[in-house]
Amino acid sequence: MTPGRGLGGGPGSSDDDAIPVTVLSGSLGAGKTTLVNHLLSNAGERDIAVLVNDVGAVNVDYDLLSSDDLPAVGVAELSNGCICCELRDDLERAVVQLADGKEFDHLVVEPSGISEPGPVARQFINGPAAARYRMDAVVTVLDTPQFLDAFAGEGTPERRGAPTDAAGDETADEAARPLSDLLVEQVEDADVVLLNKADLCDEAALAEAEDLVRALRPGVETVRTEHSAAPLERVLDVDLYEHRDDPDGDTVGADAGSDDQHTHDDHGDHDHDDRHGHGEGHDGHDHAHPDEVYGVTSFVYRERRPFHPERLAAVLRDLPASVVRSKGTLHVAGSDQRLNYSQAGPSVRVEAVGPWVDAMSEADQELYRANRGDGADWHDEWGDRHTELVVIGVDLDETAVRARLDDCLCTDAELEDGTGVDPAEWLPERTDEEEAAVVSLA
Ligand SMILES: Nc1nc2c(ncn2[C@@H]2O[C@H](COP(=O)(O)OP(=O)(O)OP(=O)(O)O)[C@@H](O)[C@H]2O)c(=O)[nH]1
């Protein structure tokens, strides 16, 4: 059993000054960053610090969260790895540094969508971070329609596991596991589950999703949300992590509670290898990382040349199913707007978030630079205009996806003569400075 705060004698902090930690969880594109934005925008008296960990080499979530409009007291980023595995030491360092550097009263950790939340949470129970922090809750954000697609009609959702051969043994391709296994895991490890994207579900679907969630995690708190807009008191300072009932009915620390269910070892670490059939436990650091286990890969697409609006819209509406998630910044011909792009499964959103600096008047550019410093990445021809996309998928054909995006770039002739297309036909225009404009492409 892993002792947590208040369980007597454990390494977890018992200091009332310990900073509560909310570990978020949820599939790629479920709405975690939307939740962090919501928490920051409605923080009131709370001073919230955020730690973000993204899948790709570029931390899009960090960029979104570092916006000057959001009152995060501190934002730290860890990219291109998994904070439950290879970036574990980095996480410890980052959270201790955060605690040293700033005054804040709550830490929200947003691991990547392919992280298992249990091992991340346990780093605040064991290890150096435990002296400064205490786990408040694991909050899992569900893309409810996706969750229903994966499990509706099943009694209790189950892990499907690695492919097996005729004899029922795991095949050589044991590393490949369906992402639905991770969904099960993320619900099982949750203290609070947000049934997000409720706007895309009817009442019966939401009720079914609640039943499925409770089958996986009896007694878990559930909250139906649209755009992750949960009441803050249901998510922060809930102190649910340590008062989870274990399957035998004893009220004990969450780690102890889930030991029985999840084959945790004596150190409270989540032995996700055993579950995945990969041998070594988590503490050994030599387990398979979630990206390997679930066959998830990613790449970053960078370009200065603008996209042709119509060709790009056609490609984004028809991405191959292997692209699970893509997001980032788009530079589209004919628009002076910096466009945030976000695709999760079948849904594609483009949001205008304000003009490129390059599109501003000289005077505004100077003012902008005086306030925010010189843009480090200024291009002679394109200024700050650029495309930077993270593309995440399973069995992803990077070359093919890159080629499709390349085909959308404007030709020299189109740059010279214009595209002949009114971008307003599909691009959002931001008219009100306060409000971002959004279009859904699919
Ligand atoms: N229709 C609908 N869209 C939503 C809702 N919540 C979030 N979205 C959209 O879903 C997309 C993904 O949301 P994010 O908050 O970036 O998801 P995430 O979980 O942080 O994604 P990763 O960090 O990549 O795993 C964005 O385009 C959101 O605007 C919702 O309740 N309804």
UniProtKB/TrEMBL annotation:
Molecular function via GO: hydrolase activity; nucleotide binding
Name-wise, this protein is CobW family GTP-binding protein
Question: Keywords on this record?
Answer: Chaperone, Hydrolase, Nucleotide-binding
Q: Which domain of life is it from?
A: Archaea
Family stated for the protein in its record: Belongs to the SIMIBI class G3E GTPase family. ZNG1 subfamily.
- The species is Halobaculum marinum
Q: Which CDD domains match?
A: CobW-like
Query: Where does the CobW C-terminal domain lie?
Result: 296-409
- PANTHER family documented for this protein: COBW DOMAIN-CONTAINING PROTEIN DDB_G0274527, ZINC-REGULATED GTPASE METALLOPROTEIN ACTIVATOR 1
Spell out the Pfam families in the cross-references: cobW, CobW_C
Q: Where is this region: Disordered?
A: 152-173, 242-291
